[in-house]
């Protein structure tokens, strides 16, 4: 059994709809009422949530966006190429990993409303990381990128969009 399989088994990870494997490990018991949250939220939200996430080899985290900021934390394996499409429509690439002298970061923040996706830098390896969302993650705040919609929005990024959508 390889190291990625050990993590999947021991951390009880399951397939994620956007690709890879995950498991929620924390969800605050306290809630923020929808009366104190910005209007983009419908209903109450936990203060914060956290998950483990694992990508292996050619697996990708497909283009998606959230209504909350998300912090990614690196744990083990290969670095991760994390891509965002910012508010000006520009693709930005950052590296999540432990080689901080080589311009990798142990933590990265994805701003709410940005389209983002990720892939393992070393396709012969895996990446284990965590994601923290505040206010807490709710699937109603998650939008998986639709290829046709994204191609209309960003026609100059056709190859990139086709690579990170289904």
Molecular structure report:
By secondary structure, the protein is mainly beta. The chain starts with a helix and ends with a helix. It has one domain: Jelly Rolls. The model has no long low-confidence stretch (mean pLDDT 97). The strands form three sheets. A six-stranded antiparallel sheet has the order 1-2-5-13-7-11, with helices on one face. The protein has helices spanning 3-10, 147-153, 158-163; strands spanning 14-15, 21-27, 31-32, 45-46, 49-56, 60-66, 69-77, 80-85, 91-96, 104-105, 107-110, 115-120, 126-134, 142-144. The protein is built from three helices and 14 strands.
Radius of gyration: 16 Å
The outline comes out as globular
* Overall CATH class: Mainly Beta
As residue ranges, the low-confidence spans are none
Number of helices: 3
What is this structure, in a nutshell?
The chain is mostly beta strands.
Q: Which labels suit this protein?
A:
Jelly Rolls; mainly beta; 6-stranded antiparallel beta sheet
Question: What's the topology here?
Answer:
Blueprint: H1 3-10, E1 14-15, E2 21-27, E3 31-32, E4 45-46, E5 49-56, E6 60-66, E7 69-77, E8 80-85, E9 91-96, E10 104-105, E11 107-110, E12 115-120, E13 126-134, E14 142-144, H2 147-153, H3 158-163
Parallel strand pairs: 9-10
Antiparallel strand pairs: 1-2, 2-5, 3-4, 5-13, 6-12, 6-14, 7-11, 7-13, 8-9, 8-12
